[in-house]
Amino acid sequence: MTHHLILGAGPAGVIAAETIRKHAPHDSITLVGDEPEPPYSRMAIPYLLMGNIAEGGTHLRKSATHFADLKINVIQARAKQVDVANKSVALDNGQTLTFDRLLIATGSVPVNPPIPGMDSAGVHHCWTLDDARHIMKRAVKGARVLQLGAGFIGCIIMEALAARGVRLSVVEMGDRMVPRMMGPTAGGMIRDWCEAKGVQVFTGTKVEAIEPGAPGEPLKVRLSNGQHMEADLVISAAGVKPLIGFLEHSGITCLQGVLTDEHLQTNVPGIYAAGDCAEAFDKVSGKTIVSAIQPNAAEQARVAALNMVGQPTALKGVTQINVLDTLGLVSTSFGNWEGEAGGEHVELTDKVAGRHLSLQFNGDVMVGSNSVGWTEHVGVMRGLVEGAISLGDWKDRLLHDPTQLMVAYIACAQGQDQWSGAADERRR
Fold first, then answer.
1. How far apart are CA 299 and CA 213, in angstroms?
2. Which CATH class is domain 123-238?
């Protein structure tokens, strides 16, 4: 009987375990998670902070016996080391587990900025359910909250904090908000929107030090712009990185993440990776990338699991898609939004209306896009980028008038067997 060992009990690990069980009903499955909670979705934590759901609403599966019913053995522990030669994994609880097939789905961990005072009481990441419990105690109405980071995750957290009625300040070291997703114009528009909503935003600024206060007293924060601030809560949202340190010296090739082929297999036969810790080949960009979003985790887990049970399946690509709602302003980023050397681009900006559209081309293919406040063409932008659809003469028409995205998509997708996808997007 084949034993499938899965490291990581987030969405990727859970979906992989369920997929293996569906296709290999008699195989043995062990799911290892390092938190004292039932498997849950980090993406649900903001809704918990908003009060829209209880803790149980974050759980990936609602039945307390779900994994037992599927005969999936769940262990709470953290992987310390992988022994490729002996096909075993050492855990921090003293156990050593052997495997026939291994899936690394350990996800990401928050980056901890090297700032004096980061270990002070009242300073938290917003990554785990335990983090959320601490935040909810301090983020009461009127509390002074300082957030480090205004990237994608930071903006989602900001939405939840604003809903709690706190007095919020955000510090971003980049020259604009969401710098890894948005160009200068778009990032600046998001900053202006947040400030109009009452959020104090500092861009091009770092937190230099955090000084703990006496019990019941606020934290004192020094910024690189010379300002000093008091805060009842400091939240670090300075980004995440793949949780792969335990693979050092294992012989499993890692770059930014665990390097995989189109079947999500690593350089070691029988060992796979999926989700936020995996670096997979993206056909749109022609590069291997880590794209830490849940749709990727789910699809990579499915593909890896099928290969683990002997059903050869290739990953079609890595979805490079971000759709962000920042205090009611919707922005998007698809594909290579920064453009390519020698490529053409067009921008359309109406700051009064709060709308911005940027399209990037390589030849007659749209390879990336940004938008702010432009929600009617979200599905079309994704379809054009991911479908790598040849636009022909429509490329020049879009350069003249980028608002013609829908018409261009319909005209070009029909002749390239993409029409069913367009229809699906329009029905949603």
1. 46
2. alpha beta
